[in-house]
Amino acid sequence: MGGVSTGGGVTITIDMTIRPDMAEQVIAAIPAMFEDTVRFPGFRSIRVVRHKDAANRLLIVERWDREEDYRAYQEWRNRDGAMDAAHQALEAYDMQVWAAEVGEALV
Fold first, then answer.
1. Could you tell me the fold of the domain covering 9-100?
2. Residue 80: C-alpha distances to residues 29, 74, 86 (Å)
3. DSSP line for the chain
């Protein structure tokens, strides 16, 4: 089922490059994190894709009701400092907030 949407919310993009020696370990852990993510208030969707030429580079695209929901989730996820520690496995990290959706078409 598909459709066209211009519904609100925010899109969060995270472009990350993982240290090559840590890439497979980090990537293997991502699906398990979804179990908590999908239950967090304001969550809409998440998609993680791997670059075709750089196996240690990921793009994460998340949809949230509000940026505040995403920020609250990040604080919750890092409540024990684990996310801060995980950043040591990264070579590069760029997070962006896209607040104005122009449109989306789904099949």
1. Alpha-Beta Plaits (3.30.70)
2. 17, 11, 12
3. --EEE----EEEEEEEEE-TTTHHHHHHHHHHHHHHHTTSTTEEEEEEEE-SS-TTEEEEEEEES-HHHHHHHHHHHTTTSHHHHHGGGEEEEEEEEE-----EEE-
Q: What is the pTM of this model?
A: 0.86
Q: What is the pLDDT of residues 44-98, one digit of tens each?
A: 999 999 999 999 999 999 999 999 999 999 999 999 988 888 888 999 999 999 9
Per residue in 7-41, pLDDT (tens digit) is 689 999 999 999 999 999 999 999 999 999 999 99
